């Protein structure tokens, strides 16, 4: 549907741009960049695109690890989580996504917080 969240994020192209922009911002952000130093960033990008595509109603099936598996041992704090959400919002602004659609996506991510945050 043209008004689906997936379409509002710009479909596959839009979601890919949003994820890449967010990861570039993360790699440059003093608050959280240390988390991304020794990471297969291409894999993280691909899995994240797949996950956001599926979550927003697009034609994808997430094939990555669970949020608990992929974040255990990374010691991600509440403020790390909030920092990444802020960068995701900036990336969606950059991509021209409406605040309403942004909040819809964030509402899908919020329940994952408990599996990602460690302390
Ligand atoms: C709702 C928020 C988040 C979502 C949806 C998310 C999603 C993902 C996904 C899909 C992967 C790849 C899983 C795989 O390899 O199969 C991943 C890995 C990773 N995430 Fe997140 N993530 C979130 C929050 C965060 C935060 C806040 C940080 C740190 C600031 C973070 C750091 C990482 C790192 C470092 C990896 C790679 C781990 C490895 O080396 O395998 N994530 N995340």
UniProtKB/TrEMBL annotation:
Listed InterPro entries: Globin-like_sf (IPR009050), Globin/Proto (IPR012292), Hemoglobin_trunc (IPR001486), Hemoglobin_trunc_I (IPR016339)
Spans traversing the lipid bilayer: none
Cofactor names: heme
Co-factor remark: Binds 1 heme group per subunit.
SUPFAM superfamilies cross-referenced by the UniProt entry: Globin-like
Residues that, per the record, bind heme: 71
GO MF term (any one): oxygen carrier activity
Organism: Atopomonas hussainii
Coiled coil: none
NAD as UniProt keyword: no
Protein name listed in UniProt: Group 1 truncated hemoglobin
UniProt entry tagged with the keyword Metal-binding: yes
Family membership: Belongs to the truncated hemoglobin family. Group I subfamily.
CDD domains recorded: TrHb1_N
